[in-house]
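Record 1 of the preview.
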Amino acid sequence: MTKPSWVVRAIADPTKNFLAFFLVGTLLFTVVSDGVSYLVWDWLGTWIETHWGIQQAWFRGALTGGLLLFLLGLTYGTDLSRWLMSQLGRSPLFAAVEVPQANVVPLKRTYPGLIVAMSPKPHSPAEEALRFHWNQGQVPHVQDCWMICTEKSLPYATELAERLTAEGITQTLRLHYGAYGVENPEMPGEMLSLVVPDALMDDPNYIQQLVNAIYADAEGLGLVESEVIADYTGATKGMTAGMLLACTRPERPLQYLSQVNPGQIMAVQVSYRLRPVRNRR
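->
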């Protein structure tokens, strides 16, 4: 997908750069058109009428018709417009800009930080994602895992933690779930629990706040955003929406377990940013 260059957008769209739109679209084009109009209609028309005796009205009509036929011939009878576009496209000022989009590719690497949504069932997608990043204990592997639970899935998260402890995995892996709290970066001092109340489990805005708080907590543990990946496979629809809203910038990677190829974890490469809309009164 491509979009026009910044020069074209600045000239053509007043919402992008009003000053450039006004100067080029209004002042420059007006001056140029007035100059051409004077040169062709007034000076040249008067000169032809004086030397050749052709009235200006006939001259203007013939010239207008001739120019119209000439432009139509160039447009539909030749490749001039395509050639001009290709030549302008070579210039960095007018070249179209390639717009990267979100791509889904198989995940090939592990991350030191992992955010998962716990499902209310044994051997959940959260466990599969965690074991993938555990990498059988081989470095590099996951070091911190935040498990977002509901009141129904919390017992399954506890069972998973017990199994991982029995296997010795938690000796080098820190599991954050249950009573573990993260500070809300939007409201310092407010602690958010990783156990989402039933009344808020389908609230995307709350889940977005919670995931933002988890990323802030990860930073306090020495992990930057790009080192923490969020898996939304086991989440409810509302929780999935909140996790996606929190990760709509390239610095926060996303993943999910493929339903087409069981066992395959897919990475979502996001290449855009969203900005919140201010509340209108």
